Amino acid sequence: MRKSICPSRAVSITLLSLLLPLSAAAQSPASPEEVTFSEHVAPILYENCVKCHRGGGVAPMSLMTYEEARPWAPVIKYKTGLRDKIGTMPPYYLERDIGIQQVKDDERLSEEQLQLIASWADNGALQGNPENLPPLPEFSNTNEWRLGEPDLIVPLEDVFVGAGEADSWVSGTPIPTGLLQDRYVSAVDMREVNDVDSSDAGGTIIGGLYIFHHMTWQTGVVTEEAGEVDEVGWPVHELGRNPDIFDPKAGRLLEADASVIPLTYHLHSNGRDTNGHMELGFYFHPEDYEPEHQRARWSLGDGLNISIQGDVPEQELHSYTVLQKHTKISSFEPHLHAPGARTCLEAIWGNQIEMLACAGYDHNWVKQYTFEDDYAPLLPEGTILHMIGYMDNVGSNPNVIDPRNWSGSGNRSITNMFLHLGQSVELTDEQFVKEMAERREKLGLTRNDHQVGCPLCMADIPLLGPEDDTADD
């Protein structure tokens, strides 16, 4: 039996959730008229969808059986067919026709999967032979950890939000991790645990289940004399966001005797009296692990010049930064607010201009896109990073409350942000040359190849160091 779990911070699931590869049965060729639920569509749903869309799950309808899925066939086709646009299912918006496509957390349906779903819906949504149904997945708690059981779980304080309370921004109480020795973290996941029964959540998540819209936090050793010291910053928790997987050569340090320090909770009512708390799951490198690379400190975004006009689509925002160090970008994470529709990240080096990634945006599902290690952008110092944001402040954008309103920068969803929150590391000259050489060898790249986001990868640059005073040919 396959084990299937549901993401812990699903957000405003309005219809369905379909992800990842087809089973062998669903990959078998079939004419459009021959596509059936049992042989072709159920494998997709069972592999990816019913982990949330089932009785007691966090999604608004069950798709476990043919009888349950059949009425939703046209909607399933429509929602999956949106691909990288607002409202698509699965909620993953990386565009396929531009930029780097190799990502660790790819949740996109393939074109073959989309065509199977469309053919099924367009040709009567046939059942097929029930004997050919794949086995039902084995379900665990819908709020399971998405990367498996963490090495360390830190529950934070309980918070109460009453039914109908206004949004609030409050700081939290530092909570000791109980860690007895320094450890480097390879990944971190975050989830909300509360006393709401998901089956009674009213069919939506952001409005009916969770009370933590987002949380900013850091870790540090807390003493009465010095207060918080040696603070380490960590990625923000947001509803719908996937786990953070750090560069394997740049684990984040979690100190012995450190505490988790919630800087800000953004709390909002889910319509009922609710007690809940955040839990942080840390995944450790081996005890003898030492990082090779340092976290990069550049930032990209604009909180001063945002001016979103009413009833205007495709408004553009632009932000630039110049890299002062050689840089490896581990993940792309755009952050906009309700009018946000799309973001692109571009690299300019010399006379070369190249788009690294573009992704649609839906403020109900904030996503990050973690590049595969051998495809993450490797950019030389002096590279100009250019981020472009597209805002649709129009009535057809379901996230906009009143498109007639002008809006500027701010923390509320009805105001706006324009940020890149992705992870990156800085490299020395030697590390930069070594990374490119290792990539060429591993991927079999030659001078006639080109890799998006690595303008110098095909240049055989000599690595000169204290133990290497000869240049390679």
Concise synopsis of the structure shown:
With 473 residues, the protein is an alpha+beta fold. It is built from six helices and 26 strands.
Main structural class: alpha+beta
State mean pLDDT (0 to 100 scale): 87
SS field, number of helical segments: 6
Low-confidence stretches: 1-28, 464-473
N-to-C span: 54 Å
Give the DSSP E fraction (strand runs of 2 or more residues).
25-35%
Describe the structure.
The protein is an alpha+beta fold and 473 residues long. Helices cover 12% and strands 28% of the residues. The protein contains six helices and 26 strands. The protein has helices at 24-27, 37-49, 66-69, 73-81, 111-122, 429-443, and strands spanning 3-4, 138-139, 152-155, 159-161, 168-170, 175-176, 183-194, 212-223, 227-233, 237-238, 244-245, 252-254, 259-267, 274-284, 294-295, 312-322, 326-329, 331-332, 334-335, 340-349, 352-360, 369-370, 378-379, 384-393, 419-420, 424-427. The strands form seven sheets. Strands 3, 4, 7, 11, 12 and 14 form a six-stranded antiparallel beta sheet that branches. Strands 5, 6, 8, 9, 10 and 13 form a six-stranded antiparallel beta sheet that branches. A four-stranded antiparallel beta sheet has the order 15-26-17-23. Helix 2 (37-49) crosses helix 5 (111-122) and helix 4 (73-81) packs antiparallel against helix 5 (111-122). The chain is globular and about 60 Å long. It starts with a strand and ends in a 30-residue tail after the last helix. The model is unreliable at 1-28 and 464-473 (pLDDT under 50).
